[in-house]
## 1
Amino acid sequence: MKSLNKNVLVIIIVITMLFCCLMSSFCSVLSFKYNNPHGHEISDEEILIFPENFLWGAATASYQVEGGNVNSSWWRFEQEEGRIKNGDRTDGIINHYGRYEEDFDLASKLSLNSYRFSIEWSRIEPQKGEFDEKEIEHYRDVLQALKDRDIKPMVTLWHHSVPAWFEDLGGWERGENVDYYTEYVNYVVANLSEEVELWLTMNEPMAYITCGYVSAKWPPAKQDLTQVPGLFSNLTLAHKEAYSIIHEKDANAQVGIAEHSSYIVPYHEKNILENIIASTIDYAWVHYLIDIVKDELDFIGVHYYYKQSINLSLAKDVLTKDPEEIENQSLDRAYYPEGLYEVLLKYKRYEKPIYITEIGVPDYHEIDRNQFIREHVREMYYAIQDGVDVRGFYYWSLLDCFEWSEGYDAEFGLIDVNLETQERTIKDESWEYALIAGCNCVYNDEL
Ligand code: FCB
């Protein structure tokens, strides 16, 4: 009997080992396939032309440009010492709230035909259940100013900043709070839907979860991984509800969600573990969410900034190297235009229109912004040629602005804002984008 037990045990162990080997080879094959770059041919046309009615825009977010959003959770956060680099503040600095007409004149000068901006929930509903008509009127004026200049709006309903009262009630941690968001969405859509066709229900929910609850560098600044599953399900539910609300008001509206998508790759092409980690992070960070909400999506908003490499050989250096050196290497956030092509092809399987709702480079980066834009636009062209239905490109950002916990250190703007005088000047490095937007084409200098 004893020896029988022993044999059974051996058989179980062997079967388990075989099963694990099989599973790990299966995962490696899948992840190698997943990470394998498609690559593309280079066109022999001198000028690459985009589809008719393509949208060339720039993006902003209310909290980052408006100033004076005193009822937001971010307002409270920025007053706390040590939260924002250099102690930077938003009040009275950029003032897009007061100067939007001037900013749109400059957008017109840059030949932009679209503008993505967000509505500030904490202005519309400064206290629970109290909706401020004066503020909805402000956004109506903003939409009118865009219309006067033939600039098509894309409106984000929630871009990272929530009202302080909402955060105090537990924010997105509590399922029942989703109703507060839908009440706000109802109010905005009832008032503005006649002037808006393109809506984003929310911006980068995964970034919100990570920065608010994992790294804790954004409000509510809790390091609490146990909240992650609940946040995820509340946010996806909120998206679905907002989608229905918008469609009830306007059957022709186009509703999407904006997702952060870096190009995540193994640092060593042939390393099995790095391959598995890269494909798992890419799926968990981006595509899992899209899979959950794909029936409630008319389009997908894709944000692409850089390539990130998974480099396990760094792990063993952690104890021996200078922490700053490790930090620089492990971030490995590289400017990599070809990554945009690869990222876009990964979205092809959803068979939905795509808008690149953010892409950009800060002034401090050594790359010239003209070159950055030209090369990424070219990669987007090849993705379109290869069957991805990309319909618009929104540079981040129209203006230099408050870069969350980085304060004003990361200036991404096409337009420079003098932080003392608020004076606006189009940067020299933005004119190539104006040429691209103006001709709906890009020069193929790879020939
Ligand atoms: C994106 C955010 C946007 C801005 C840019 C640089 O992830 O959506 O608000 O901070 O990064």
## 2
Amino acid sequence: MFVVMIASECAPVAKVGGVADVVFGLARELELRGNAVEIILPKYDCMRYDQVWGLQVEFADLWVPWDGGAIRCTVWFGFVHGRKCFFVEPHAWQAFFNRGTYYGFYDDAQRFAFFSKAALEFLLKSGRRPDIVHTHDWHTALVPVLLYEIYAGAGLHNLRVCHTIHNFRHQGVTGREVLYATGLNRPEYYGAPERMGDGLEHQAVNFTRGAILYSNFVTTVSPHHAWEVRYTDLGFSLGHALYRHQLKFGGILNGLDYEMWNPEIDPHIAQHFNVTSFDRKAANTEALRERLLLRRGARPVIAYVGRLDTQKGLHLIRHAIFHALEHDAQFVLLGSGSEHGINEDFWNLKRWLNDNPDCHLEIGYDENLAHLIYAGADMLVMPSLYEPCGLTQMIALRYGTVPIVRDVGGLKDTVFDWDFSDRPRNLRNGFVFEHPDHGGIDSALRRALGLWRNEPGLFRELAKQGMAYDYSWNHPGGHYLGVYDFIRHK
Ligand code: ADP
């Protein structure tokens, strides 16, 4: 199959969040299975040019119709760790992608609507006729709409689109004028509630709603989240549209990059280990203590790694810190937030706990330290209020660190409770709690710490059972190919 991904991010060249890892990881898996994959991205001024090999002009004069005129673009080609990537560079006074950062501008909807249009124009003019176009999140959600309404008639009629929604909170809601710019000239038609009209904001259009209607298949990033967005308020007003189109909607768990996250070869950890040499993990715990100036001794290390965002259950993370300290355990946190108030709260907490020999809060982003924490911690908490998929718990499992998670989204699909899961004992891999309150997380922490203390042999077994799970791209790659095959023959 020939698959073209159209996305606003791809790791490591242009990465803000998890979508970048999915685009890269899935593309690589599809190629390993013998498919041809190309990725189309904006050419940002701030992207990591050191991660692109052989950057050269592929298409010098791509004229993209826009707002009654046309904008000239240059399309560049380069390899990103073996993936074939095309970068669209518009030469426009708006400087769409020359702004020093990826997102956060008043005209983001215009910027990515333009990119969606340019990507299709590139497919058309360069003679590319992929079997599947795979788009990601609201940034490229207009692609299926434009394809069906404009480009099918211009020659791209055999393309099938799979659209993946990574985060339902951001849907691309904007004024109708952007539709004119793209050539979708009937606002009352496209803006109708059953098409792209936003469910909440009167007169606004919603790109993601368009993608749900016009794509051949829509996925989100875990099976349980696919259920949640249809039946609970986690669909952020898209539940009804998804319900209506549920025959072409499903959840596929994200994969983890098993080359990057591998305790057998990880260059950032103190001692390599695997399931059979599990005892060596202890050397990483000592290295972690040494690096963060924690005292040595027979007490477990509980960790949190991740963004400091309300979504992650911040009040429960805070509570877990004090629970650990009251129950003779140690706590390590690595995280940073985009909101000033949240960072400030954690800075205050850090100052408050500064001299505690059993606690270290690192506020910032540190890829290397993250690796050592996953390798050195005994347990990892992830009390998210919602979690479309979550990679952190999968990384923890890979490093023999027992996850303690809330029963939501992708966490529910990947972590199975030691005491209460309906899976056989030898397939359980962590601790799960349901209610997002102190009682909920206390009960899970108490059970985890109890097992660590009273049944160390069983705790080791639990950690090793987690390591035996395969959360690589192997299974998701197969599932996506199944979806592609299904829509190709529809
Ligand atoms: P989300 O996509 O909601 O941020 P995920 O669990 O899917 O959460 O992915 C988080 C990824 O980002 C993990 O790989 C985690 O290790 C990494 N990460 C998050 N915060 C930090 C940080 N402060 N320092 C280093 N790595 C981080």
